Each structure stands twice: as structure tokens, then as C-alpha cells.
Amino acid sequence: MTEEENEATHTRAKQYAREKGYVLNVDEKQLSAVLRGLARNKERFGAAYCPCRLRSGDPEKDQIIICPCIYHEKEIEEQGTCHCRLFFKKKSE
User: Which residue, 45, 46, 35, is CA-closest to 85?
Assistant: First the structure.
């Protein structure tokens, strides 16, 4: 996995967060680990599967765990963050 792939993953996550009104994890170490996992999964399996979810190996079934997965919006609404702790609800100012 190249630095360019990592950077592209970070850029996509940042753009998505901005569009949805979320923020990325401010803990750089944890953010980096999740982004590396996404980039690694894209390289290995052809899609940026959430690194915190188990793939079944069936690409059709696993579509639901491609980041941002189908669970993230409900998790952010209920818990303030998605399971991977990549996206967070913006704090009210």
C-alpha cells in the first residue's frame, strides 16, 4: 500500500465528513490506523471495507460494510461516532 493510497483514503473520508456535517477522529494515531485499514482492504479486496467489521467473503453481502457502511449514520446519531471511530458528530458550538 502506497502513501498515495493512504492520502487518497484520507481525502475521501475528509470530503465525506464535510459533506455530511461530521468530523474525523482528532486522535491522529487512531485515525491513521482506520485509514490504513481502509486503504489495505481496498488494495487486497478491491473495496474499502470497514476495518472494524468482518467480511463474509461474499462481495454481494459485503457491500453493506464498504465505508461509509450502512450502519454509520445510526451509530453516529446514537453514540456520537461510528463503530470504527472514523466519523464523529460535530459538537454544537
Answer: 35
Taking only the tens place, the pLDDT of each residue in 13-45 is 999 999 999 999 999 999 999 999 999 999 999
What is the domain-level CATH number for residue 80? 3.90.460.10
CA distances from 22 to 25, 31, 76, 80, 88 (A): 10, 14, 9, 10, 6
28/60 Cα distance (integer angstroms) = 32
Determine the length of the chain. Answer: 93
Domain residues for the domain of 74 are 3-89
Question: Domain tally for the chain?
Answer: 1
